[in-house]
Design brief:
Distance between the termini of chain B: 41 Å
Radius of gyration of chain B: 14 Å
Helix content of chain B: under 10%
Oligomer: heterodimer
Strand content of chain B: over 45%
Shape of chain A: globular
Number of strands of chain B: 12
Structural class of chain B: mainly beta
Structural class of chain A: mainly beta
Distance between the termini of chain A: 35 Å
Number of helices of chain A: 0
Number of strands of chain A: 11
Chain lengths: 112, 115
């Protein structure tokens, strides 16, 4: 079945550590996105990529980094510079030029 | 830049009652509009979308929404709510430029259904 796979589902990190969230899609979509979700704030765009080896900052990119070496994969690294990383992270993908997005099941990151 | 306002943070309805969730958007051109639903701890599932044409769009699970350009609104409706509709619903507006396609979400409305 085609879809978007995020792993792990739950992730715990100590303060000061970097951590990488995985996102893989087999929908053959060109565009991929990372959103952060906090209670009462909806979804906020972190980074997005329209094609391989290219990506742009979204609204809240500080403290995050991404790569897009393959069409299928768009990993997100939460760095130690992110001051409040505890949140629910959602990955999405879409056909280029079409804004309808398909979402993964999310990763809940907790800093301990 | 586009924006979305969902004025109702939390709505409670009785099973079998009708439902309307409000959504207002701001965008300079003709918008692409979406409603997504999220169960706790899960990703988002598309309920319905409006790109052009008929302003009343039908979606999954018996939901519908009406695009009203004069009011900049895209309210979600359902004639008879089921207990399984309890979830969080998000309205979103999509924008596509020559180089990017992006969705902007509202803050969501949590729907509670009483039996």
């Amino acid at each position: 079945d085609g879809g978007i796979t995020q792993s792990p589902k739950y992730l715990f990190r100590k303060e000061g550590q970097n951590v990488t969230l995985s996102c893989e899609q087999n929908l053959n979509h060109d565009a991929m996105y990372w959103y952060r979700q906090d209670p009462g704030q909806g979804l906020r765009l972190i980074y997005y990529s329209q094609i391989v080896n290219d990506f742009q900052k979204g609204d809240i990119a500080e403290g995050y980094s991404v790569s897009r070496e393959k069409k299928e994969s768009f990993p997100l690294t939460v760095t130690s510079a992110q001051k409040n990383p505890t949140a629910f992270y959602l990955c999405a993908s879409s056909i280029w030029g079409v804004t309808e997005a398909f979402f993964g099941q999310g990763t809940r990151l907790t800093v301990v | 830049a586009q924006s979305v306002t969902q004025p109702d943070i939390h709505i409670t309805v009785s099973e079998g009652a009708s439902l309307e969730l409000r959504c207002n958007y701001s965008y300079g051109a003709t918008p692409y509009l979406f409603w997504y639903v999220q169960s706790p701890g899960q990703g988002l599932q598309l309920l319905l979308k409006y790109f052009s044409g008929d302003t009343l769009v039908q979606g999954i699970k018996g939901f519908e929404a009406e695009f009203k350009r004069s009011q900049s609104s895209f309210n979600l409706r359902k004639p008879s709510v089921h207990w399984s509709d309890a979830a969080e619903d998000f309205c979103a507006v999509g924008a596509h430029t020559g180089t990017a396609s992006k969705l902007t979400f509202g803050t969501g409305t949590r729907l509670q259904v009483t039996l």
